[in-house]
Specification:
With 119 residues, the chain is an alpha/beta fold. The protein has helices at residues 8-25, 40-49, 75-78, 83-98, 102-116; strands at residues 2-3, 28-33, 57-63, 68-73.
Length: 119
């Protein structure tokens, strides 16, 4: 998880949110906050493919400078999380991002992913 745009307290809170969401949905959730090289979707997909269990993983990639959010889901996760549901999480995140709340947006989006991807 690369989250250098967050302070230590925000990273710790996000880590707790990620663990809770993972327990809820039985998938691995990874977060990358930083500059996306080239095409954002290709960049997010390449990050997702490096995860230990990509089929059972969700990657949330946020490029704050370019105002981009990408969610990549593995095949197993896609059986439980639709593109529309992933878009709901993006909308929840970007609403908070627009208010200048990067940490709050990430936490809310991850919580929502955990809730929506439950079996």
């Amino acid at each position: 998880m690369s989250t250098t745009a967050l302070n230590a307290t925000e990273r710790a809170a996000l880590d707790v949110t990620i663990r809770n969401a993972e327990q809820a949905c039985r998938a691995e959730i990874s977060v990358f906050v930083g500059a996306a090289s080239g095409d954002p979707r290709d960049f997010a997909t390449s990050l997702h493919n490096t995860l230990v269990l990509p089929a059972r993983s969700v990657l949330v990639m946020v490029d704050p400078d370019r105002r981009l959010v990408e969610i990549v889901t593995g095949g197993h996760v896609r059986e439980r999380l639709t593109d529309d549901e992933a878009q709901q999480a993006v909308a929840a995140m970007t609403e908070r991002f627009a208010e200048g709340d990067l940490a709050g947006g990430l936490n809310r989006g991850i919580e929502l992913l955990g809730e929506l991807a439950k079996d």
